[in-house]
Specification:
By secondary structure, the chain is of the alpha/beta class. It is 46% helix and 16% strand. It folds into two domains: 234 residues, Periplasmic binding protein-like II (D-Maltodextrin-Binding Protein, domain 2, 3-Layer(aba) Sandwich), CATH 3.40.190; 91 residues, Periplasmic binding protein-like II (D-Maltodextrin-Binding Protein, domain 2), CATH 3.40.190.
Length: 341
């Protein structure tokens, strides 16, 4: 955890307690009269990184956008860019997978990980072209396999290969961006492709790709929320982030029960057909959730770091624990307890 001084911590605990009490009272229909006063959030602006069709669309569609602070949305479409912006003090919040966070830990970047989103792992897929004889991961030996270096696809492909008694040395591994990978797959320049998100869906729908494996069982399913430590240590922005996390979790829970409405909002931003988004949702491995940091989250992330060191992707050991911040656990814990109940 990252801390500055005891007076700041005491004030922060009061802020969190106040937000938690207010959230409970709103749920129970009881006026939150006993909540201690907090900072004036009307003077706060949160700079939040979003991906096209994700947080910005989700918050608006779920009715959670009436915040007591101002949000400046900044569209950055990969986790590395989110971390670079946070490290450069150009963002307060961002998100991505566990993988860019490894490099942040290795480089001692100015970033913290404050919560995790649970997301679908069935849209992280290893695909084979329909015109190849490839039927299983073991058949990838000697084949041209696309992937995206230093991403989830790099990680789960390495684990799938190892399970089949292979390594990256046994395949012709080709590092491509998702867009370039889709074009290469279309042309027949790849025999197989480890990819995530909508591009995998396109490969299946347009080109008849076969799914060999998904990320289920290979990835943790934890996608960290990244934060600027300057924002975490500022009492007013800490309070605003606490409020935003609660709104985001309510938005995710809303999406689980109203996915058609969320798909329409996503489609408006991404131009991906609503039907394709619904199909992805219907094949999901899990519902959305937002969870606080715990020992299991940190331990799982360290296991990924150790695996990437063995693969030679990292130039040295990365200790992730110092970058995980649990100061929002009080805000999120009652929500997690409610789900467990």
């Amino acid at each position: 955890m990252h801390r500055n001084c005891t007076p700041t911590l005491n004030r922060r605990h009061l802020i969190q307690a106040g937000l938690g009490a207010a959230a409970w009272a709103a749920t129970a229909g009881v006026p939150a009269l006993a909540a201690p006063p907090g900072p004036d959030l009307s003077k706060v602006t949160l700079r939040i990184g979003t991906y096209k069709g994700l947080w910005r669309a989700l918050i608006a569609a779920s009715g959670q956008g009436n915040t007591p602070y101002r949000i400046e949305w900044r569209e950055l479409n990969n986790g590395v860019l989110h971390i670079e912006a946070l490290n450069g003090d150009a963002l307060d919040l961002g998100s991505g997978s566990e993988i860019p966070a490894l490099f942040a830990a290795r480089q001692k970047a100015q970033v913290r990980f404050i919560a995790v989103v649970r997301e679908d792992l069935n849209n992280q897929v290893t695909l084979a072209r329909k015109d190849t004889p490839i039927q299983r991961i073991a058949d990838l030996k000697g084949k041209r396999v696309g992937y995206v270096r230093a991403t989830t696809s790099h990680y789960y492909l390495s684990r799938q290969l190892a399970e089949a008694g292979l390594s990256f040395a046994d395949i012709n591994a080709i590092n491509l961006t998702p867009a370039d990978g889709l074009s290469a797959f279309d042309r027949g320049d790849l025999d197989a492709w480890a990819i995530y998100g909508y591009n995998g869906q396109l490969a299946r729908l347009r080109y008849g790709a076969r799914v060999l494996k998904t990320g289920q069982g290979y990835l943790s399913g934890n996608f960290p929320i990244y934060a600027n430590p300057r924002a975490v240590e500022d009492p007013a922005r800490h309070a605003a982030i606490s409020d935003y996390l609660q709104r985001l979790r309510r938005a995710y829970l809303w999406a689980n029960g109203n996915y058609l409405d969320y798909a329409r909002a996503q489609s408006a931003e991404t131009r991906v057909p609503v039907g394709d988004l619904i199909e992805l949702w219907n094949n999901r491995s899990t519902d959305y959730d937002l969870r606080p940091v715990d020992d299991g989250v940190v331990k799982g992330h360290q296991a990924v770091a150790d695996a990437f060191l063995q693969l030679g992707v990292l130039d040295g050991p990365a200790q992730v624990a110092p970058l995980w911040d649990r100061s929002f656990k009080t805000v999120l814990q009652p929500l997690a307890a409610d789900k467990a109940a």
